[in-house]
Input
Amino acid sequence: MIGDSWVEQHEKIIGDSVYQKIISGTLGHTVSFQSSGKSGAKCRDVYHMMFETGQYGTMPLLSQGPDFGIIIVGINDAAANIGTRQFCYYYQQIIDFMLTNKICPIVVELPDVTIPKMFNKKTTKDRIVDWMRSVMTRCSLYNFSEYRYALNEMLKDDSMMDVVFVNLQEWNKRGFQIEKELFMGDGVHLNHRGYERLDSCIASTILKRMKVVI
Output
């Protein structure tokens, strides 16, 4: 699993062994699961980290030849008003890399987290820069829903037919709005219960992809 702070916090809050227990218990043999994420990472960062071996580099992880690659990223793109065009460009690069290396990409759809809470300490200058980026990219300020919509449209392309999509409503009962019981007080990051719900959903999705009856 690669991505931003959602991935980085995963091991700290719940541990990567949860996936192993769920999937190993169903398959009847041991499987390996590893994650590597970086807080604040945007889609472009996640893509470049796939070719790095440093602290946050995911090349060592991907070079092991995993069957599946879970991708969780996008919140920071919206928070920085990067624009949906650049976001989707690098997201597609991540997916294409996985497909080329026979790794099945698993795209996790995310809800409308409360991005403005991330910027209580932003200066007036920073907010002006954000506004300028918003104008240049023609995307609303801190509007994650636009990024989610753009990603969904991208995935409709025939070249994306081998991508596994984890629908938001399968793990977040309120759909586009966050289910507060699953999130920390900041309304952006998952708590232990949230990771339990998400992990269970992704594990079930992987098993279904493997055509395992659960």
Remarks:
- The longest helix spans residues 192-209.
- The beta strands are 2-3, 36-37, 68-72, 104-108, 164-166.
- The chain has nine helices and five strands.
